[in-house]
């Protein structure tokens, strides 16, 4: 059995302006939004993954109420709680950010390690 763990995760989300400039936490996007073939607006094209239901953060952006057919404007979508929470996770809770965001927006000394064995008090916890 093995597990992946990310340590020292720092994100520089390309979909947001520099958080230092966004002191009001308005989460202003800094690049073009993406439009999925399924009819959803997304923060970037990398979020349009084949199986969004497998990513806890991205699947929330595929909520039926956020579908283009169910909204009058794009602003209705990007100002939703789902979008706010997605961006909040990117800036305030990076350990729970989407794996897609970690892959494409990580910076610095980030390391993803594969843990094959964990020993605590001379006992193997994870083999």
Task: Supply the key terms.
127 residues; alpha+beta; two-stranded antiparallel sheet; two-stranded antiparallel ribbon; 4 helices; 6 strands
> How many H/I helical runs?
4
The largest pleated sheet is described as: 2 strands, antiparallel
Q: Which strands sit side by side, in order, in the main sheet?
A: 1-4
Contiguous low-pLDDT stretches (5 residues minimum) are 110-119
Radius of gyration (Å): 17 Å
The overall average pLDDT, rounded, is 77
What spatial form do the alpha-carbon principal axes imply? globular
String of helices and strands: EEEHHHHEEE
Note the beta-strand portion: 15-25%
Structural class: alpha+beta
Q: How much helix, percentage-wise, in residues? A: 10-25%
The number of distinct structural domains comes to 1
Distance between the termini: 5 Å
Number of strands: 6
Brief rundown of the structure:
The protein is of the alpha+beta class and 127 residues long. The protein has helices at 58-61, 74-78, 81-92, 99-105; strands at residues 3-7, 34-35, 41-42, 111-115, 118-120, 123-126. It contains four helices and six strands; from the N terminus they run βββααααβββ.
């Amino acid at each position: 059995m093995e597990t992946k763990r990310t340590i020292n995760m720092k994100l520089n989300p390309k979909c947001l302006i520099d958080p230092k400039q966004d002191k009001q936490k308005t989460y202003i996007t800094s690049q073009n939004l993406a439009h999925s073939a399924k009819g959803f607006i997304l923060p970037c094209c990398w979020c349009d993954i084949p199986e969004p239901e497998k990513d806890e953060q991205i699947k929330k952006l595929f909520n039926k109420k956020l579908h283009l057919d169910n909204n009058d404007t794009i602003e209705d979508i990007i100002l939703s709680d789902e979008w706010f929470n997605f961006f909040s996770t990117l800036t305030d809770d990076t350990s729970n950010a989407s794996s897609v965001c970690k892959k494409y927006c990580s910076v610095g000394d980030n390391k993803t390690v594969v843990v094959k064995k964990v020993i605590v008090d001379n006992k193997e916890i994870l083999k």
